[in-house]
Design brief:
107 residues; mainly alpha
Length: 107
């Protein structure tokens, strides 16, 4: 049985599955990542293309509280793999984006 998702999410989800397979990931890894994407999709009403840092933080705290660190790791990797090739959205934070380094002020 194939799950039915809202149209924008369904397109991104199908593309994700194809990219993961083409990257040579094992079926078990693809299943873990896709479970994480579906879980995040359900949590965010299937609108995961423009998430803020605060939304992601709240979601990951929820995952750790309800499930496990291992699940959090797979959800994070799955979400990263979806955002790598999506076009940027104003106000959204890429999951792979690192915060700017703080520099010491010279006196």
């Amino acid at each position: 049985m194939t799950p039915e998702f809202p149209e924008p999410f369904a397109l991104h989800y199908d593309c994700l599955l194809k990219r993961l397979k083409l990257h040579g990931l094992q079926p078990e890894t693809i299943a873990l990542y896709s479970n994480g994407i579906r879980r995040a999709g359900a949590y965010f009403a299937y609108r995961i293309d423009a998430l803020t840092r605060e939304q992601l933080t709240d979601y990951f705290v929820h995952v750790v509280d309800q499930l496990s660190w291992s699940t959090l790791k797979h959800n994070l990797y799955g979400l990263k793999s979806t955002t790598r090739n999506l076009p940027p959205v104003a106000g959204a934070t890429k999951l792979s984006q690192k915060p700017a380094k703080k520099t010491k002020a010279t006196i």
